[in-house]
Each structure stands twice: as C-alpha cells, then as structure tokens.
TrEMBL record:
Protein name: Glycosyl transferase family 2
GO molecular function annotation: glycosyltransferase activity
Keyword Calcium applies: no
GO terms under cellular component: cytoplasm; membrane
Membrane-topology annotation of the record: Single-pass membrane protein
Localization annotation: Membrane
Organism: Gluconobacter oxydans (strain 621H) (Gluconobacter suboxydans)
Keyword tags: Membrane, Transmembrane, Transmembrane helix
A family per Pfam: Glyco_tranf_2_4
Length: 483
C-alpha cells in the first residue's frame, strides 16, 4: 500500500475558541491526516473536532485519565498517533493548539516535505513567537488572521523547535514534546541541512522555508484564561509570562492567499458544528416521531445592501471594526425578517466572518446581527432606523461634517434616511414570526433536521444572553463557537 505524505497530531484541552482556526489552517495546508487528542475538554473543543470527522480526514480521541500526569498524557497521545501512522504516512508532526505550521511560497505541506531525503528522518522547525497585536479581548477572527506582530530572532525562546518525524524511525524513548529520539537517520532543518543541536531541544533559528508560528499570548483575555486554567501547575498569578512573550516587534502577517484558503475551510467547519449540534440535539429524543408533519424552510427573506442619504454604501472599516459610509472591508447587509417593524443589519452569513462582532457608534451593544426598529417613508422609499435600547435614530453625517454613522438623533430628518440598495441574496426561513428563544427551539425541533444554518446564526444573535445560554445547554457548549 502506498503511503500518504503527511499527518499531524494535536494535543489539546479547552481551546473551543480557537480550534476551528487551527484545524482550518492545517487542513488548508494539505495535511493528509489530522489526529486530535482531546484532554477531556469541557468547553466544546472535543465536539468541534468531532464535527469535522465526516467531512475531512480528522480522527478524534480522548486521552486516558488513568495517566494522572498531563505531561505523560501528551507523550502517550503523540506516541499513539505515531504508531497509527506507521506504514500509512511518511511524516507526522506534533503540535499544541497555539502552534501553526507556516510555509513560505505557494507550495502545500506535501510539496515542502518532498524535498527531504530518505536519510532525513526528523525535521526541526524553529518557533516564531507572535505577540498579542495589542488585542485585549477575544473575538471570532481566526488566530492566523488577527495576530500579525511577531518577535525578532533576538528572543532566545525562538531557538526551541517542534518536529516532523518519520514514524518508523521513532524509538519511543520520550524526552520532551519538541525533539524526538530517532532509531536511525538524521534531523534536518527547514532548508534540509543537518541540525546542530544546542542544549535541550534548541538550535540556531531558521525561519526561511518553514517555521512554527507560536501564538503563545494571543489576546490578554486568552492569557487570563490560561492563568486561571493552569494556576498552581506551571503558571503563577503574575504578568511576568505575558511581559516576556508579548512581543510585537515586527508586523508579519500570513500570506493572504493562505488566509483565504483557510477561511474557506473555516466557514465549512462552522456549518458542520451547527449540523453536528442539531443532529445530537434531535437524537436525544427531541425529534418529532412523525416527520410527515415536520416544518420545512419555505419563507423567503430578501437581503439588500444599505445606502445612506448621501449615496454611500454602509460598510465596515475592518474585520471587527465600525460601521461607516463608503467601501471598506465588507458591505453590511439588511433585511426585514418578519412582518413587523423590525430590521436586521448583519454580516454576510455565507462567509467565514459571519459571527465576528462589529460596532455601531452609540448603539449600546456589539453584535454581528443587530435588530432595530424601522419606519418607512413612502414618499421617497427611504426608511428611518431606530434603536429600541437608546430610542435614538441612526444618522449618517456628511463627510465634510465628520462622516460618522451613529445612533445620536432624537428626531429623524434627511440625514437619518436610508435606502435599500440592490438585492444581494435570498434567505429561506422556517420560522414565520418573530419570537423568543422558545420559538426558535420549537422550529428547530420540528424541522426534521432541515433548520437553516443562516436562520439560526442570525436569529440567535438577536436573543438575550440568558436565552443564548439556554441554547448552549440544549445544543452543547460547542454551539457558542459559531454565535
């Protein structure tokens, strides 16, 4: 049997916020197989990974808690994946959830691995530590896209490596998760040259060709969560770790073509998480016994771009930024979802960024789908948009007066007029009426599994926080990764 080229193993615990990004990146790089060893996560990490098994070559296992030491559970996971890969994959890499393989140029992972000789039985790729890019809070922008500032080679921690190995060459004598003992052959670096090891699993830093981007800090919220999880084990109640690793010396984003490829996978995984959650929800005795009476998506909802009185489209100034007038990162969409005075302003539900929150000045909230009130002006087919929270109207101030888009007007006049632009798409909903979370759950229960992802995504955004928590308890914690 001919071997496939590449496998990778992820040892992970409680990374529901970012595991979709990790999987998307490495799937898009072209790895033939991904092994995920979940160390008994409680936040939905395991379920997110499991949702990928039916659409990608991903195999998900839970670690054995018979081994009480985290360090050795990681060892056992790596060794198990290596043994499974013997006679099936030429190479296997071992990574954590904050480590991403990065390859120069346009080749995929298999093209990169092709250049190594049979005598090369291990490949050592240098760490390249990325900082927080001054991010304080977590958001839903993928890791590989949002953290763009890295350290320099002067940071000595970058001398550490992570490894690719030929499975048959591993001696299964464990020292650490960085460097593996080989029974034959040699370790090469990213350029194919023999590695000159320093004490420990360190060597001269080489970032050309390939490296391991280590997003060790991510946002400050990530860091605080990490301290909470590992306080008293290998981390302390201190900012020393953050101060050391939060290096933002050089702006060095990933190649846009690679980001686009990963984002396509990311969007597919989001939908698979929804389908996985729905399937499990209905299988727990919640589905209709007689599917002949099930509800099906039938009601068409037209989706439009929105224009200001000044003739400008409403857009976002960056991926998680503010609403403004003009062409920006992404045009915002608008729809009247029900026969009422409610209007939704939202991100495109068909792309990876659909659940990334954006901001509207003075709206007193932050969301990816906003629900406001509107009133029609039949004289010129314009509408006024009003916030039920602040009771203020949305206005577009002319550019020569600042150009802001904000909820700041007590009364509606010309600057508060908006117009539907061209029709962009059409959504198909199951639900006929607006209503609370209980109505959404009713429609989901009675849809025989055909409830639309887009309807769930947009409707769930308009719910109160306690109703969203009810969805979490019914569908599982993994659902929070997509809303």
């Amino acid at each position: 049997m001919k071997k496939e080229k590449s496998a990778i193993v992820l040892f992970v615990k409680d990374e529901a916020h970012d595991i979709m990004a990790w999987l998307s990146w490495h799937i898009s790089l072209g790895f033939d197989k991904i092994f995920v060893y979940d160390d008994h996560s409680t936040d939905g990490t395991y379920e997110i990974a499991k949702s990928c098994e039916g659409i990608y070559n991903v195999e998900v296992c839970r670690t054995s808690m018979l081994e009480g030491n985290f360090y050795y559970r990681q060892r056992d996971s790596y060794f198990d994946a290596i043994k499974k890969s013997i006679d099936h994959y030429e190479w296997i890499a071992m990574l954590d959830g904050d480590e991403y393989v990065s390859i120069d140029g346009t080749q995929d992972i298999n093209g990169f691995l092709d250049k190594f000789s049979k005598d090369d039985t291990g490949i050592a790729l240098s760490w390249c530590i990325y900082g927080s890019s001054s991010r304080v809070l977590k958001d839903k922008v993928p890791t590989y896209q949002v953290f763009n500032h890295r350290s320099t080679p002067e940071l000595n921690d970058n001398t550490l490596v992570k490894s690719f190995v030929r499975p048959e060459a591993v001696s299964f004598v464990y020292e650490n998760p960085h460097k593996f003992n080989l029974s034959y052959g040699n370790y090469a670096d990213a350029a194919g040259q023999p590695v000159e090891w320093r004490p420990g699993a360190t060597k001269n830093i080489l970032w050309e060709g390939a490296r391991i981007n280590h997003y060790i800090c991510r946002s400050m919220e990530h860091f605080i969560d990490r301290i909470k999880r590992r306080l008293g084990s290998d981390l302390s109640n201190s900012t020393v770790y953050w101060s050391h690793f939060d290096r933002n010396d050089v702006y060095d984003p990933q190649d846009q073509a690679r980001i686009n490829a990963a984002n396509t996978v990311y969007n597919t995984i989001k939908k698979s998480v929804f389908q996985y959650s729905m399937k499990n929800f209905l299988e727990k005795g919640n589905a209709l016994e007689n599917t002949e009476n099930s509800l099906t998506p039938h009601r068409k909802v037209d989706v439009f771009h929105l224009k200001s009185i000044h003739g400008e489209y409403l857009s976002l100034n960056n991926i998680d930024g503010h609403l403004f007038q003009g062409e920006g990162f992404e045009r915002i969409l608008a729809a009247i979802p029900y026969d009422s005075n409610k209007i939704w302003l939202f991100r495109n539900p068909f792309v990876y960024s659909s659940n990334v929150r954006f901001h509207i000045s003075h709206s007193a909230q932050s969301n990816y789908c906003y629900e406001f009130e509107f009133a029609s002006n039949e004289s010129d087919n314009s509408i006024f948009i009003k916030s039920p929270k602040t009771q203020k109207y949305l206005t577009c101030i002319p550019v020569n007066h600042g150009g802001n888009v904000e909820f700041s007007r007590e009364e509606a006049s010309d600057w508060e007029k908006f117009y539907f632009g061209e029709k962009v798409s059409e959504l198909t909903f199951v639900g006929d009426n607006e209503g609370p979370a209980s109505d959404l759950i009713y429609y989901m229960l009675n849809s025989a599994g055909s409830f639309p992802y887009e309807e769930f995504l947009l409707k769930s955004a308009t719910l109160e926080s306690n109703d969203r928590m009810n969805l979490k308890s019914l569908l599982g914690p993994q659902i929070m990764s997509i809303i």
